[in-house]
Prior knowledge:
The complex is a heterotrimer.
Chain A: E1 3-10, E2 17-24, H1 33-46, E3 69-70, E4 73-74, E5 96-100, E6 109-111, E7 114-115, H2 118-125, H3 147-157, H4 164-168, H5 175-186, H6 195-208, H7 219-223, H8 231-247
Parallel strand pairs in A: 1-5
Antiparallel strand pairs in A: 1-2, 3-4, 3-5, 6-7
Helix pairs in contact in A: 2-6, 3-5, 5-6, 5-8, 6-8
Chain B: H1 15-22, H2 28-31, E1 35-39, H3 43-55, E2 58-62, E3 80-81, H4 93-103, H5 110-130, E4 155-156, H6 162-179, E5 183-186, E6 189-197, E7 200-208, E8 214-218, E9 221-224, H7 245-252, E10 257-258, E11 263-269, E12 292-296, E13 313-314, H8 316-320, H9 330-345, E14 354-357, H10 359-365, H11 367-385, E15 394-403, E16 406-407, E17 420-422, H12 440-462, H13 473-490, H14 498-512, H15 519-539, H16 551-575, H17 599-602, E18 604-609, E19 618-623
Parallel strand pairs in B: 1-2, 1-9, 2-5, 9-17
Antiparallel strand pairs in B: 3-4, 6-7, 7-8, 10-16, 10-18, 11-15, 12-13, 12-14, 14-15, 18-19
Helix pairs in contact in B: 3-6, 3-12, 4-5, 5-12, 10-11, 14-15, 14-16, 15-16
Chain C: H1 13-39, H2 45-57, H3 62-92, H4 107-110, H5 112-131, H6 144-152, H7 155-182, H8 188-217
Helix pairs in contact in C: 1-3, 1-7, 1-8, 5-7, 7-8
Bound molecules: flavin-adenine dinucleotide (FAD), protoporphyrin IX containing FE (2 copies), iron/sulfur cluster, FE3-S4 cluster and FE2/S2 (inorganic) cluster.
Amino acid sequence: MHITLRVWRQKDAKSEGRFVTYEATDVNEHMSFLEMLDVVNEGLVAKGEEPIAFDHDCREGICGTCGFVINGKPHGPRPRTTVCQLHMRFFKDGDVLTIEPWRADAFPVVKDLVVDRSAFDRIIAAGGFISTAIGGAQDANGIPVRKEDSDLAMDAAACIGCGACVAACPNAAAMLFTSAKVSHLALLPQGQPERPDRVRSMVARMDAEGFGTCTNHNECEAACPKGIRVEFIARMNADYVKAGASAGRRAGGAPESAG
Amino acid sequence: MELKPNVPSGPLEKKWERHKFDIKLVNPANKRKYTVIVVGSGLAGAGAAASLAELGYKVQCFCYQDSPRRAHSIAAQGGINAAKNYKNDGDSVWRLFYDTVKGGDFRSREANVYRLAEVSVNIIDQCVAQGVPFAREYGGLLDNRSFGGAQVSRTFYARGQTGQQLLLGAYQALERQIGLGQVEMYSRHEMQELVVVDGKARGIVARDLVTGETKTHLGDAVVLATGGYGNVFYLATYAKGCNTTAIWRAYKKGAAFANPCFTQIHPTCIPVSGEYQSKLTLMSESLRNDGRIWVPKTKGDQRAPNQIPKEDRDYYLERMYPSFGNLVPRDVASRAAKRVCDEGRGVGPTGYGVYLDFHDAIGRLGKAKIEEKYGNLFEMYERITGENPYDVPMRIYPATHYTMGGLWVDYNLMSTIPGLFVLGEANFSDHGANRLGASALMQGLADGYFVIPYTMGNYLAREKLTPVADSHPEVRAAEDAVAARTKRLLSAGGSRPAASFHRELGRIMWEHCGMERDKKGLEHGMGKIPGLREEFWKNLRVPGSGAELNQSLEVAGRVADFLELGELMCLDALERDESCGCHYRTEHQMPDGEAKRDDAHFCHVAGWEYTGDGKKPIRNVEPLTFENVDLAVRSYK
Amino acid sequence: MPQAATSTFWRSSIGRKVVMAVTGAILFGFVLGHLAGNLTVYLGPEALNGYAVFLRQFLHGAGLWIARAVLLLAVILHIWSATSLTLSSRAARPIGYRERQWVESTYASRTMRWSGVIIFFFVIYHLLHFTFGTVHPSFVEGDVYHNFVTGFQSVPVSIAYIIAMILLGLHLRHGVWSMFQTLGVSHPRYIRWAHVAAWIFAVIVVVGNCSFPIAVLAGIVK
Ligand SMILES: Cc1cc2nc3c(=O)[nH]c(=O)nc-3n(C[C@H](O)[C@H](O)[C@H](O)COP(=O)(O)OP(=O)(O)OC[C@H]3O[C@@H](n4cnc5c(N)ncnc54)[C@H](O)[C@@H]3O)c2cc1C
Ligand code: HEM
Ligand code: HEM
Ligand code: SF4
Ligand code: F3S
Ligand code: FES
């Protein structure tokens, strides 16, 4: 089949970008979207042009590296599917596809479709962990965990950090990502001691990174390739309110960071 | 070069304990004066970086992805072994040790494997404390399953995403140290060269993949945890960026490369669908518990699978291995599939595929039960192939999935270059000639969390290291070498993209150094690679410049190294004139077609020593002695 | 670009959302109460005027002023948080998409800022209309029933009210669900209820309030 691509090209973070049209001919329906771009790129290289830069690594939907917006939908039209697992049989001959990078102030464009998502790492560094010293742990079965809690924690922990939630959110909010990690750790007994500090520091970091604020549009849930639910946003909100209420009770001089 | 394993003396069970006691310690106040460079942020790298930082060392950690959380460890599905014996089914450290040594077909170092089994229990404790949401039972305790043909249930798992959850645990520990300022993280940085000063590893030259700037990072020791090199086959279950660059540079600087030809082929991957294919996807081995593998009895049978009656089908694994049937080990299942396809009985558009059929299981257990067990795998298969495996049998074919070979290390995980430590899949490690399922995750974390924190201290406490200046001639030389190479890649001036060479190399390797090898084929492959390499440097085209994000340049650099590594792999396979584990030389087989080891001549590790471009490397040998287990013949009949 | 992460509860994104939700809840509560009070119109002039007198004498006259103070404060904080959250979100996406396809968000959720502002102007008009009588054609101080009936006898005024009420319904359709979510009602079962509840309340408010102008124009209330 034949597909027309309108791709956002931007040389680097400082340059202006623009849309450039490419024709992908002889697209095989078994190709993944990224394989289709590979073929387009090999053609560009053969012509001596710069190929389209896009992020990718595992190509099996788990590393969270890939991602761009296809015709207004992050990761394209298929629910719960990353672009690397999106196959061309879901498109038709003659389709015209607009391909744009994630758009958010906190995710500056690095080149073409590649964005800088290091803000997510900094949110985790602010408190998205349980402080344990390696080597000192008690026997794993010493802490029983209700299966329901453990399963729900796993649902939240399935987030791959791709950033599609931010890209989809009309407010460019990072609530789904942040709440997934907060909820994962808050649901487990091991996560309790740091729970108030964790949510406070992570939300503070999230705000400082310049993400927008959530007004409960639910677009993030629809775009999330791993089925992370807005239920976790509600959980985080409740945790945050509780943590705010307990802030006054902390002993004086306690360090703010959970580290 | 001498390959001195430095295994502590004493009985097997006491070695690690005693070694930890004998080890020299670094004074806590002095630790922050040491800088350790960790390349890689997978289970091994992130684990090492976090635990070294916790101890107080200054750490610089590198990965080529945009975040350390994306290392390829994330893709492991099945699970992680540990000798917890929570199921009370007779597991023990000793049994895990024995299974691993036997699984590796007696080509691994006893003492290392025992240590691995020993610390496996601590890994699970550590991960649970970090909040890894392992699967649990209704009583709230951890669940286990049996995996990869093991006779005990010792595999811990987190749905089909065990690697992801373990990696996120390590990543979170790493991010905590980054937040505390103990670790400096360099994402989107690729190691291009190792800096060796006075015979000791003291730093690396890395390219910032965003700005293109190459910079030297100096420290007191270097840890490589850069994963496996299976992408040499082009089509593999690895992430696209996985490479051999880091360990190849170290090899060229004097680190021995051990058993490069030991590569594992996984039997249940989704087959290739066309020329454009960029990678292969693995499906959990557990599918073989209920699926039956078959091909048509006659060559060129074009009927749709459901139209082929039972009597025209060949359930070849059940036929050849009546007692293990479809559950024979990975290498056996993979080779059998290749053979039937080579006979022309393969299925699917390319003829390289066999059926994995759930029709009988659905009849026996009901669709609901199958869906409960394998629903997500079926979904994944359908997403990729567009076929519904509830109605039509799946098609599978083997694909490269793990490399047991890697840089040679001693008991302390130190390579032949002092101060250069190698962890995880990047070392030649504990798996011998064949890795058992669920043991790579275990090894990565054992190396990173529980071994390197001790052995690094021992090294630093014993060595007198003087600071290296940025202007040191060795540093300059390393930087110049990188610059020259980048320039060469950019100015080859040809017309072919790097990927096209990679595909061609992959075909050579798969054909001649894949599941079945023989002298003639290996020599043939070795003959072809230099020509391809020459063509590469003549006819390569890399658009753009070196001073920006340039993905074509990244790919080209990696392909250039694979083009050299491939030849070494063929050489190693040629000179290991026996069959063992995954290394199957058709000249050496039992009457029934099983791998035939030659313990008299090859019960050793081959550690290759670089002697210069275009020169034959030297094959050094570390003899393997087995004091605690008998060298038995693997049999799965 | 990253900044120092030192925000207090009320300055944080979630803190401001909570202000929005709490003030929204107060305003919503008022709307329900106001609707209930106005429904007395169907019981005749005495009931409605009696209700108005009750309001004025409640707590010796202090009740009304306390309520007014709370409402005013709620409106101010509601508008403050709406504005401040909107500005943060605008800044968070300086360059928009060329194409967008919505999946889960609703017309109501995407137009909160517009519906809110229009309701605000409606309330000002409404106060000039029924409380101060400035824009009322035949305002009689104290005779709420009279003002009510004569006010809605004008077709354009009634239509304006109906439009405003539909927008209010939209605002509440998203607002009530959003309130639950913001205040952290996370149980999957309740979450589904939150959507149902939002619909029910929005419909009650729209139908109830729209019934007044319609009843007057239809001559049911005269
Ligand atoms: C599909 C699949 C399924 C698997 N399933 C299982 C399983 O169920 N159980 C099991 O035990 N094992 C499994 N394995 C094997 C196991 O996942 C890997 O062997 C293991 O995770 C490797 O970990 P690592 O830390 O050594 O390397 P990796 O996780 O590969 O990490 C390598 C790191 O090095 C960095 N790096 C590489 N090159 C450079 C460079 N030149 N410069 C800078 N940085 C560099 C990368 O950025 C990355 O951070 C599976 C493997 C695959 C592919
Ligand atoms: C200038 C006037 C107003 C503006 C700009 C405004 C704007 C907003 C915005 C932006 C929201 C947030 C939506 C979200 O978080 O999803 C909101 C919520 C809400 N508004 Fe308003 N609004 C205004 C007036 C009103 C009035 C007069 C009422 C009541 C009659 C009201 C009731 C609510 C309710 C109940 C909510 C839900 C609270 C929440 O989001 O948690 N608003 N408003
Ligand atoms: C069709 C629907 C409505 C009718 C018929 C109506 C009617 C009235 C009447 C008759 C009064 C004067 C009462 C008195 O002076 O005692 C009044 C006051 C008021 N109404 Fe409404 N109203 C309607 C909708 C609303 C809505 C939707 C809001 C807010 C969002 C609102 C806010 C107010 C306020 C703030 C006052 C002034 C209360 C005070 O005295 O402080 N009204 N309304
Ligand atoms: S919550 Fe979903 S969309 Fe957001 S980063 Fe995680 S996986 Fe991606
Ligand atoms: S789409 Fe945005 S507004 Fe909230 S519910 Fe999701 S973060
Ligand atoms: S490339 Fe890893 S998720 Fe798409």
